[in-house]
Amino acid sequence: MKPDQHNAVSDTLELNGRRALVTGGTKGVGAAVAARLSEAGAVVMTTARTRPHDLSPQELFVAADITTAAGCEAIADAVMKELGGIDIIIHVAGGVGLSGRGLGKLCARHNIPVPPRGWWAKKRHGHRVRQTPLPPVEDPRLKRIVFHVSESQPPEADAPEFLRESNPEWRIDVLEDLQISHPLVKRAATAIRTASRERSKDRVVLWRDRYQAKLLKPGPGYLDIAVSKSLLPRALRIMQALLTAFDKRGYPTSVTAKNETIVRVLDEPFQIALTERFKQVVVKHSYGQGMDLEPSGRLNLRIGSTYDNAGVADRPPRLIEGALNRFVARLVRRALDAKRQRVIGAERERR
Question: How many domains does the chain have?
Answer without folding.
Answer: 2
